[in-house]
Amino acid sequence: MKLAFSKMSGAGNDFVVVDNRDASLDLNADLVAKLCDRHFGVGADGLLAVELTPDADFRMRYYNADGGEAEMCGNGARCFARYVQPMSRRDNAVVTFTTPAGLIRGEYVGSDVAVNLTAPTGLALNQKIVLPIPGEPEVLVHSLNTGVPHAVVFVEDVENTPIVEWGRAIRRHTAFAPRGTNANFAQIIDGSSIRVRTYERGVEDETLACGTGVTAAAILAHVVHGVELPVRVKVQGGDFLAVRFKRDGDAFADVTLQGPATVVFKGEIEI
Predict the structure, then answer these.
(1) How many Å apart are CA 111 and CA 129, to the nearest integer?
(2) Which of 183, 194, 210, 261 is catalytic?
(3) Is residue 113 one of the residues assigned to a domain?
(4) pLDDT tens by residue, 87-109
(5) How far apart are CA 15 and CA 74, in angstroms?
(6) Domain span including residue 23
(7) Active site residue 210
(8) Residue 166: which H helix or E strand, with range?
(9) 128 and 207 housed in the same domain
(10) Residue 73 is a catalytic residue
(11) What is the pLDDT of residue 92?
């Protein structure tokens, strides 16, 4: 059987996207992992599937590269919105789609796509943890769930931070058991800009961008370091994303993530 797909990139965070509106695809973990494999498949950080639902224009299913389904992916949501733009059942200015994390609204802003994210939960600040690696460094971790759990560590020099080693240790630390967390390392650039690198749970490596991680880091940069809104975030892929939100004490609303979302190529693969 041949499967038609699109390869998409959201600021370097890349995805295989498939149309499953007819519910004909059995997207089991083995198949998803095969498609995302960078040596024997298409290669991607995750897979997005378009499905139908009576509750919105579409339903978005997101799977990590290891085949496990996740609640949400910020850059994935922006790519999903761009992918379904020609399929939209109403005007082409906005689109709505459901996810396990809630209802998402995508807006087309020129070459960018802006998506709202569900209200973050679980704000936790100033947690000191010791990393179970040689030297046992102690880091100050801030946490926030922006659809999926994220830990954020602010560093002086993100370029020379051991992202994979520290990220893997934080991702599986007992403080975040049993499901683990994504690990983000953020550096303040100026009063309204930060740089972020992310170790993603499910990918089990650094990715060039992570939308929900960027959002968590931007919110925490505002809370902890007073970074002004909108927060501009430079990701490892080189692009800038913009994060906007409203704050009321420890609660956040109207969270949006804006940035590029493009089709890299289209093709077919034998499955």
Answers:
(1) 41
(2) 210
(3) no
(4) 966 667 899 999 999 999 999 99
(5) 12
(6) 2-108+261-270
(7) yes
(8) helix 163-171
(9) yes
(10) yes
(11) 76
